[in-house]
User: Fold these one by one.
Assistant:
Number 1:
Amino acid sequence: MTFEDTWKPKIDAYRAKLDEEVGPYKALVEGIDYSSENFNAVEALDTLLTEKDREITNSTAKQLVAKQRDGTLTAVEIYNAFAKRGAIAHIFTNCAMELFFQEGLERAKELDKYREDHNGELVGPFHGLPISLKELMKYGGKVTTAGFVCYLDNYISNSPREESVSIQILRKLGAVFYMRTAQPQSVMHLDTDNAITGRTSNPFNRKISPGGSSGGESAAVAMGSSVFGIGSDIGGSIRVPAAFCGLYGIRPTTKRVSGLGSLSGGAGQESIFSSQGPLTRTIDDLEYYMVNYINMGKPWEYDPNTIPLEWKTGVSLPETVTYGILLTDTLVEPSDAIKRGLAYVQDKLRDYKGKKVDVKVITIDHDLMKEAFKQTLQIYGTSKPVHDKLFAISNEPLLPLTKFFLGFANPEENDILTNNNIKEQFKYYMYYLFKDQGIDFLISPTNPNVGEVPKNLTHWNYSSMFNLIDFPNIIFRTGLTFDPKVDVKGPTNVTDYNANDYVNAPINLQLTALRFEDEKLVEGVKLLDKALELA
Amino acid sequence: MTFEDTWKPKIDAYRAKLDEEVGPYKALVEGIDYSSENFNAVEALDTLLTEKDREITNSTAKQLVAKQRDGTLTAVEIYNAFAKRGAIAHIFTNCAMELFFQEGLERAKELDKYREDHNGELVGPFHGLPISLKELMKYGGKVTTAGFVCYLDNYISNSPREESVSIQILRKLGAVFYMRTAQPQSVMHLDTDNAITGRTSNPFNRKISPGGSSGGESAAVAMGSSVFGIGSDIGGSIRVPAAFCGLYGIRPTTKRVSGLGSLSGGAGQESIFSSQGPLTRTIDDLEYYMVNYINMGKPWEYDPNTIPLEWKTGVSLPETVTYGILLTDTLVEPSDAIKRGLAYVQDKLRDYKGKKVDVKVITIDHDLMKEAFKQTLQIYGTSKPVHDKLFAISNEPLLPLTKFFLGFANPEENDILTNNNIKEQFKYYMYYLFKDQGIDFLISPTNPNVGEVPKNLTHWNYSSMFNLIDFPNIIFRTGLTFDPKVDVKGPTNVTDYNANDYVNAPINLQLTALRFEDEKLVEGVKLLDKALELA
């Protein structure tokens, strides 16, 4: 059976369904040339919204829930406003793999009815909130592909032992679903392009990547398709998309959020675990998600691999907060834009008068970093034989970044004891670096550059070093955007840098804390927001 | 350099130091033939104690702390009573690798002085409590060997980044140390015998093993050398010794207790983690240790791999408590003694009037169990190359059970993805078995037999199946002991069973709960203690 005969028709059917869903919304964007090279979808979108659309979809989760509670907004009104943005988002960026508007609407109606029948009581903290889901999360009653062509017939039953635990939790707490978002082939790119639904583009600039692997999410959330977009991250897959699309995004300490019921080609690789978390437009939404998902959702009641650790509320920062700044991983020098962002944050923190803040430049040992990155790639490479098998089933054409990933390591030369021993060595090195330097947080690049062109997304270390040691991270906004006049130099791993490619790209950075300090990390970002005059 | 020329003199020096420490106590045991075949050290010990010795050393931790607080006992009095039992324990069973009585006494004096200087205030919840330590815990200012001859020069500095985190915590909370206990060569036997200090025997019957690898601990604690004996367990190493010596012993869910600073030949093997925990003579002492070690010790402040999960106090059991009973792992049929213990517990639970209790016999799928055990051995085998190297350094003669362990698996044929995928499959199988059957706890054998003769300690699965899936366990007493008249059949893996070998061996069993339900598990054992009329 060839790819063309067997699988191409399935792909066509899958895409036809997606096109059919979005069809009625095409009229909305009439006259807009969204295929132009540096197309800014965010800007174009804004012209298509009514004042009411804006008011609803730019509200925080907390506000939307409060307005449903007091009866000033219905779930259906909320749904309609977000779904409009979601449809436009998909037309402009190709962020979705699956759309089901009618189901979303029915669900919103059902939630409004529940409220009516229960004297204004809501189902839960996510009542009526549209949430977009990375497609690899197994959705009961639908096919889940994780971007693999061979999974195009992978129908998921409604059994609670098959469907994604997080989907079950979010549904129970009142969420509305209508969009499942794209991930790249193999789910192991820092870009988003697959052989089923194709490329997703960055909403700020069509030429560059939205990041990956949760790049469907980052494009969708940046366009305001949902209140929360649920991504997952084993090497940067929440953070790079969040950074490239100007969002907040958390990669929590692993096993605080359940990943049970996610499809992956990497099952059994346990040296680096994947972590699931939300991408949002505000830090308040991010915090709202974490506290409610964990404390109300209690994922450990569904999944023995999830730690029964409540989200601590009311965490306060020390009297003096010390931010370490990592300017380079010593392997690839970041671009001018990233350097400018780091310098700007340093200046703003030093000038901040609202709280005592210290800033310290931190350096990492080059040899250890190099070895740790080498082992990181070896670890990812462990799953190559599984990926080879999955691709062989369909014979789908392999994208350049898939081939790049499959070359990370030779699993036959791999030594699990060395992988893990170097990992532990680097973990304790970083742990004691925090302790010895007295830093509460570490600010660092998420990637060598801002929203990169796809083929240059080859240096994972700025994000993956924290997967290796499982220190939690949040991507935060600096408020700056790429400027071709001053950001003249690219990162040292890019040989064909052209400053005009990156126009409008947001400059976001990464904040890291020690393991299990996720709550403190949120406070660290709130303080940054204040110092950067974003809050 | 040969073993005889280089290493034998170091072994001799190490043993001479141990003999020198215990020398002054030899007079205590004069006239007792403790080398006779079925020697019962526990019985012999009892004749050597004064009423006051008994009163002190048979008190619980809570009582000893209360008496120091109200001034009716000093730390020195407590120390002297326990040290006497510890010295006799070592003479009778060879349980210690290192003894340092003078240091213990000085420490007890220091604690008494602290109390005097602070108006009766104590250092912490372990004030003045003698605690014995498995020797593989790195002790500042001493050599740590983990039973490997090649580590006889492995001096540990006093740096808090080198010494065992748990030793630091216990010291900070007031513990008194004077004994480090034996573990087997490679630390991978369910027996205790090594090329440095030789064989440890079971205090109830010299002919049989005290269990292993924490068999120095089980012998020491059964003899009353300490209030708590700290062991570690990657395949049964706390539980088998606790069971064989009539003790309580917990293998907590991994990463609730810090194992940082323990020496091991298995570093880098992360599919099955080791777990550290106490062996005690009462469930109250076990609970006292866990609540104070975790909540007062806060091990996560020293170790990024330890989960900041407080020990919940005041956990209550459901209205009806359901105990599942696993009679066989389907691979090896247990001995008559074990079967008698299981039947007795069932009867006692069914007759119990103090609380509603249900008992359900549970069976496990044979094929999955077989495959899970196969992968368990493959996982342990991953560290064979490291062990080979460690043994090659000294050329120490390999004991039969070391050779047995080194044959567990061929690491070159190993497949980490298969290891972990089967592990997860078995974990969810057992998780859903608990859920579907509605059981709170599972009662099962710890080993196919009670206190076995060393060479027959070859079937690890009754203990190791729970390491594989990381469900916590506590060993509990049935109150029964081996009876050669009725316990006529051995387990099916033993071909030369002789009922006379096991006289006086306690019949203990294993209780298991779901992951992170360690607190509930303690309540489950307390209820068993009541039903079995032991409390």
Number 2:
Amino acid sequence: MLKNLLEPKSIAVIGASEDVSKPGGRLTKNILTKGFNGNLYLVNPKGGMIQGVKAYPSIPELPEAPDLALIGVPAKFVRASLEELAAIGSKIVVVLSAGFGELGPEGKKEEKLLAEIATKHGILLLGPNCSGIMTYAHASKFTGAAFNLVRGGIDFISGSGATVDFLAEHAMRRGLTFNSFLTVGNSAQSGVPDIMEIYDDGYGPDSSKIMITYQESIVNPQKFLKAARSLNKKGCLVAGIKAGTTQAGSRAAASHTGAMATNDTAVQALFDKAGVIRVSSRMELVDVAMILQCVKGRTDGKRIAIVTDAGGPGVMLADELNRQGFEVPPYNERIRQRLAEVLPPGAGLNNPADCLPSINGPVMEKVLNILMEEVKDDYDFIVFMMGDSGLSDNWEIYRVLDDAMHKSPIPIIPSMVSVLSSEVPLRKFREVGGCYFEDEVYLARALSRVVNRPKIYEPESGAVGYDRVKISHLMDDQHGALTPQVTREVLQAAGVRFPGQIELTDKAGLKNVPFAFPWVLKVMGPLHKSDVGGVRVNINNLSDAEKTWDELMKIKDASGVLVQQMVKGTEVIIGANREEGYGHLVAFGLGGIYTEALKDVQFALAPLGKEEAGRMIQSIRSLALLKGVRGEPGMDLETLQDILVRIGLLVTDFPSIRELDLNPVKGYGKDIFTVDARIIVD
Amino acid sequence: MLKNLLEPKSIAVIGASEDVSKPGGRLTKNILTKGFNGNLYLVNPKGGMIQGVKAYPSIPELPEAPDLALIGVPAKFVRASLEELAAIGSKIVVVLSAGFGELGPEGKKEEKLLAEIATKHGILLLGPNCSGIMTYAHASKFTGAAFNLVRGGIDFISGSGATVDFLAEHAMRRGLTFNSFLTVGNSAQSGVPDIMEIYDDGYGPDSSKIMITYQESIVNPQKFLKAARSLNKKGCLVAGIKAGTTQAGSRAAASHTGAMATNDTAVQALFDKAGVIRVSSRMELVDVAMILQCVKGRTDGKRIAIVTDAGGPGVMLADELNRQGFEVPPYNERIRQRLAEVLPPGAGLNNPADCLPSINGPVMEKVLNILMEEVKDDYDFIVFMMGDSGLSDNWEIYRVLDDAMHKSPIPIIPSMVSVLSSEVPLRKFREVGGCYFEDEVYLARALSRVVNRPKIYEPESGAVGYDRVKISHLMDDQHGALTPQVTREVLQAAGVRFPGQIELTDKAGLKNVPFAFPWVLKVMGPLHKSDVGGVRVNINNLSDAEKTWDELMKIKDASGVLVQQMVKGTEVIIGANREEGYGHLVAFGLGGIYTEALKDVQFALAPLGKEEAGRMIQSIRSLALLKGVRGEPGMDLETLQDILVRIGLLVTDFPSIRELDLNPVKGYGKDIFTVDARIIVD
């Protein structure tokens, strides 16, 4: 399937036209201009020649089923064309025609029909209202003919055609190369995740190592998750935008492609779990892709070596790198000495290496050679920053840079700042395959996004003492809110600890309570225990307990005493909510005011890996409080991690759980107990 | 002075040369290329003609003292040239020559000498190691001749010459216009704040309304503050970068211009108090300047109307606007109806108005007219977003836009996204004075920076009960840490409340204690009160107090009892630290763990205005806790504000205070007391 998308042996244009202001005409022109090596079939009721190519009067007259068929006829004729294509055995159909779901319910109904027909015949349907596909091998897209795609470049799968063009113009101005553009239009049948799955299924050694995506709604979150994780493991990093996440944005998205508002917390958790670098603007997406193109798979490391020809931008770069958590370690004595031998007095030797504006090609070659020889063990990336002072030929310098980028043991990431005065040498640099940033601060931010990208974790498949069978038995036939007793039993069967408790009707039983002081004693029998003074906390020894027993039993209707372990310590909350399509979102935060007033909560999609749960905990702002302040012992983070993993397992195994709340979870060190809990199932 | 900088009637180039690869030669060429209307005097020992202009063999031979003299001779001859210029009466001298402070201590000494000579003769000295000045009237700068400046554009004052060129290239590519570039090089005598002061002193009705600055060190924070605030009040907004604020950045800055590390908290507080919009990259500075150029002084408002020709970018824009706190209110029924009359089916009518890619000039004119008529009362800004679909002539659309930008009742801010395919129409748009963003998300962020810019507050000059004379008397001859007693008296004289306390030697005195329960009773006499059980808290009534009195007086060495009002409630800390050159940095934060573990503290430079103090309080992350959670009353924010104002007054009136700490400040509602305090003076 992927091969037929990227390199079809035959393409049919249904609705081809001489008039290039019509989609069908523009599309034909683009395919012809770009040059397509296979068979191009044009279909137009009038037949004859269109743009110099023979046109068939109808689909049934085509000599073969095209690998790829594109429909550009008016909306009312689309269904018939699709059916005819199905009849001759077409398997990929792209509907460029507009006039469907974006116009209202009528159009929505019609595009649903198209999807049903396509699915029935095993056809992959893109669109309607879609601008097409463009790859290194063909330009089946009715906008943006100016683009020149390169095999092995970046794949861009987009829910918005305009976004492809607008992003590509910026990207290409800076030398980013693309393997394919694929737009899904209204996603009547197939959305971005479906296409990602096709790219993943067809992934091979020559496939692109970088994929970028734009979505306004995630039509199938689970498919997105699976495809992105799989691509990631095969060595293809994915970055993307999910727009329409605010009130104004989702209203705009609704009128654009009919996308529905989704909970952005779930979207973020999805991207994180999928290992997809999430950004919110075209420029940021270009920047992240630029880093990925420069580093060629070497995506980790914190130590940066800087070469520049100007002080100020070097300072701003060093500042931003520091802010983003990178290090800019000073060059050692030997590097400084070697640089001093080739650079003039006044040059900076200390990282940044400030080569001064008088730098030329031959000297830059020496500087880069010194760095490539010296920095490979102690640095992870070289950032190269160059303006045009007019004092030397910048193309000489870029040529040296291009050579170094190919042979350097660590990635070199360039920022070219003289966008006007270096216009000609920069064009030459792009022509030899060079790519670059135009601002050093954005470079640092994009590098940080890549290095600090979400990692893929393998979820735990079980845990010691986690008793799936028992839970299953307990959950049988449950609906709505579980009783406190069943809640407790379910969670205990999942390995979650509760404070000890025992119901006594005999005072002598106090001697055999199987847990330590302090205790809480609660009278059994009376309905409103607190109102009648029936709850006593902080019982620290047996004699106090016995005295309290006597007092409690004097209360009217007292039938016995509930003895509970009294838990002190820090409070956290752990919860899980089901988000349709996404699975369960597990939440972790500090209890009480921290969650209520400070919104200091972290989320991740279940099921969780141990490290993943650990990252949730480490990411709360109030982590210091969790670890213990002012001599308090705090909570053992591994124990919390273990509880999170168990909750992730529980909601994954029992998706009927709609809501789950452990609040508070309380304790010190490893002695962490769930004091109160609530589970709602449906 | 400013007039002579911007429009000198005569310019002298000392070290003029035929060789344009030398600064003196390049500079001469730039001045000639740009065209200078006054007298240009070249000086070169060889005399003769240089670049077609007569050269004088020496400075004394010049026919008059030039308004502006630029020195481009080798470093060792600079001092002599300066002295000769001083002798003929020059008042502005720019030293372009490098080879001074940036090379080490020797050069530092030499440039200090230059500064002394200049100051002695009342000369404004720029440089050394400075790339010069460029204005709408002359191009006295040895780099960047390509720039075309426009009277009334933006003033850019920079501590880095390369940063000017690099920023300007980006800015001009997008149509930003500049009034002047001024670089200060090593700032031997005059730095960015000094130049700002000159621009402020010479500010007139024709002056620029926008100033941008780049600094690696703030040579004179107080001058920066004064000039920026004064410019702001005159209608000129200032935005700027202070680089070199991280460890790596300040090392880079040190090797660039010898800037020293400064406390970034103080820098941020300085920018805030000065009303200067602070950014950290060239691009962000261009973006903020772009907003200011578009909005022509209308810098407030939250409600955005959007016009676009493409869905996706409209969604990303609406998202970012929402995230930045803007509103994108839906168009009302009348606007929707009027838009529907001119736009094709499928167009979005609901804000964003999505005009679809088929939009052309005449239709866009109608759309903009509708919006200009309808939105002026309900919206504050129009954001206009346009790509190039190839389906119509974009220049037609830009021409309509240009016209609308001139006559619209509310500012129109454009984002032009097809940077390659619209190259020609965009050039035309810039030629008629148009300017634009290239990314809608960056537009939203920059607009937010402008709308949410730091405001200028007038500090309070006094407060009820603030007794400057008494404090002055108390502070007389004080050094080091003040005693608890003096600390209390000083703060009380400033109007800060302490909990009541009274020393009693007679039990009967308990009846007349002038403050309410609860009390703390502390035995007087014994050295380590706590160790001997001499501190009793939570005394709630007189009989308990009398009983406790008896117990305390039984303690060995007891000589009496200190009765203190016991304060309950929320805890905050208030402090002040002197930062050399900046004045005092006043700090406010929630007490205890919030300050220690969560670093939730806000800072502002003293003296404070009431609203300014209010903003500090409102800006802490834990504000909800301060206001009271779970039914607790919280603290009265105005009372806290009042304490902050008093502390600001105190440290401003008594700059010998090096450190001041009120920790904790405690209470509920308006009853807020300083429980413990510390003042160190020098």
